[in-house]
């Protein structure tokens, strides 16, 4: 069975993100970029499926600028067999990514698409769901356990208040939560081998997808700095402050 | 708590801009090592160093290695699992030949990777380091059959290697080695005797350990010309590579040391129960030659230990200085609010000193590593010879100066912490204790200085030394002619330091010929002189690149400006030491011999 894994290039989780001085977005030049951590989990899960003999081929996909090749190389070093870059310089919204991946899925015909549940830059948590809708495939999001047998996937999902297990018929879309697995380190021999694995580049146009953004970004601001705390004399004063200053309680 | 973060930006800057990684990647056999691939490799190595090795450094120091009553050795909690992961990730064979399962990456790349291991957990990395030395020796002089049998598992890291040189009466002077090797009818030998200070001589990482042992055959001439090299496996290995019976070699105790507690330093007894089976490696009576070729590599690596420990001590000191609030910052805060100590001028001086030394050592180390690659693989024999001459001159300097300088950097790391630095829990003291061995093992600083003066410099009548000094002088003159104020200042200081070096070279050449005892009395200040000037040379080159990049609008502007400021501090605050060292060499050397032995 063929598995398609989506990987996004994001600002590394160790980097303290800064807003550009003109407020036009966050600073990304000379900033360390890495694979979205949820997507690493997706790649790891696909590699484990292949190690168990369930998956036969893993195709890693990324949508974005030519720099995303680095992220794809990282996926290849972790064990993906080949990579596809859908190249565009347009800033992509989740719907555009979902449409691009859907078009690619129609070409590649995988039985399973695994994505991170969200990317740590925009935290949109939309692409997987939109992709399933566009393909009219079942979806199982926030997976913390994945078992595949007889053309079906048993997926344990992390939901509010506990775990939920759903069964979906393949082909399906699965998005990963943090506890699905712990991604391995790329080994040195695999990093070297990744150089020689095939990487294909397609343009967004060639997939017939219009990626024009629907949302205009007006301004980005740093979160307001924390103000100093203070002591309250009693509970009454605390409640009054919560009500009148913090406004987290309804007026009396 | 401070977490180690590999200084990837500086590592890549040095590799690409100063050491010529892209040219190295054009050498035959190194085509894979393009800057983009190397970036991925360094990135992945840094994750391993940060996530796996660094967290075990303090706990390994506290627990230490333990010898159990049956003679086996237990490494600290977590070390065995980390070693298995290290080996599975393929880090053991970074620069080893592909024929034996290695990745055959350039020495330059391996130097960057090993710096990270040393920084994160030097006591751990000593095991792979010694294995690599043993691999080099077997590869150099082993028979094809020996290589085929022992190298693949050693390159993979499923077996480790040790180097057995020292005996109680034979430390720096290996001529005094007494270990006996008696020939057997089947062509093997039986070894008898004791070796001390054997790093990872016994451990629980792997099923087998391959000991390389210096010993004398019965007919061997006395002195260094009668020492042979033997391979003694812990478990005998049959033709198809499977393990046979336990050999007669035992760890009889572990040393109690000032530092590197997690690294078991073993006393090894050979032949207490009938003789340890050993195989001659290389020619009889020529064991030391093989050992010395291999030793160059090991000395280089110990120099890189100095770089790694310095970087780690620096990072921890910066971290602490940002957090520790104490006193008012003079000239900054008029309201008199307490400030983090990083705002105090003297803390700044210490951090700047640590930073500048570390970057200078890194640059000198990587440039030397690149020269090793060129010495092996450059296309023209004349090029290879010239690079080799540079490497030969630099090895004692990288080993001697980087390890001595690491003493000062790790000392400052403790000093920045104040009283808390003397308390083990902050972690600052461990780097200082671990660093203490590096000026001693693989040849003390005194031995390095002897090598520099007595061999490396005099064997070509100072030709290479003068050529390198002239090269430095050219850089100094070029920078001094620049309009940029920083480059100009750096160039002027470097020119003065180089003049002092050239003066000392002339003195040393003349003195060593006429009065070798006087010359050698000044050999360590002479080595330090070389080190501080070569460090300044590399920082000057770095500053020039950074100024050019800024002018072109290329690269990370903040990084470039930081590099220029650091290089200028080095030139103005550290490089003046050169003139003092030169003075001590030229005028001070006789004074070291002024007293008779009885007068002490």
Give a structural overview.
- The complex is a heterodimer of chains A (252) and B (600).
- With 252 residues, chain A is of the alpha/beta class.
- Chain A is 27% helix and 27% strand.
- Chain A has helices at 37-51, 68-78, 94-108, 127-135, 188-194, 235-244, and strands spanning 2-6, 9-11, 33-35, 57-64, 82-87, 112-116, 139-149, 152-159, 162-169, 172-176, 199-203.
- Chain B is of the alpha+beta class.
- In chain B, strands 3, 4, 5, 6, 7, 10, 11 and 12 form an eight-stranded mixed beta sheet that branches. In chain B, strands 1-2 form a two-stranded antiparallel sheet.
- Chain B starts with 7 loop residues before the first helix and ends in an 8-residue tail after the last helix.
- The chains are: A alpha/beta (252), B alpha+beta (600).
- At the A-B interface, helix 2 and helix 5 of A face helix 3 and helix 17 of B.
As a percent range, the share of helical residues of chain A equals 25-40%
* Number of E-type strands of chain A: 11
The structural class of chain A is: alpha/beta
Rg over C-alpha atoms of chain A, rounded to the nearest angstrom: 21 Å
Number of strands of chain B: 12
**How much helix is in the residues of chain B?**
55-70%
Biggest β-sheet description of chain A: 9 strands, mixed
Estimated share of beta-strand residues of chain B: 5-15%
Order of helices and strands of chain B: HHHHEEHHHEEEEEEEEEEHHHHHHHHHHH
Q: What oligomeric assembly is this protein in?
A: heterodimer
- Category by helix and strand content of chain B: alpha+beta
Uncertain runs of chain A: none
Unreliable spans of chain B: none
Q: Which whole number gives the mean pLDDT of chain A? A: 94
- Largest interface summary: A-B, 16 and 23 residues
